[in-house]
Write the structure tokens for this entry.
Amino acid sequence: MAPWLCVAAGGALGALSRFSIGNLPYVTASPHLKTLLINVIGCMLIGISWAVFETWQVSRLWYNFVIAGFLGGFTTYSSFSLETMRLLSDGRVIESMVYVMFTVIGCLTACAIGLFATKYFIN
């Protein structure tokens, strides 16, 4: 049960952090730039976390709280980036390129299908 609670608590804090950063009164940038900022921060944090956790062999519960929970709630782009880096660090360059290509194209295509299909059936 503990891993589930760690992910849930971290996810709640990550989502609240994302919402808070996106709604800072002095951040007047467009929504796209706010999302970019959040994604870049999340990617930096997941890189730092992964390095620290592997170097210091931190408990799996902290991994669940920080990486799966907090950063998963903060930005899923950080998880995508970490998975790509893991493939590259394992020397799986072709697989990482295919993963990136299919993730970006697949997700954009799925979003477009969902958007247009829903608009079609609603109207």
Remarks:
- The chain is about 85% helix and 0% strand.
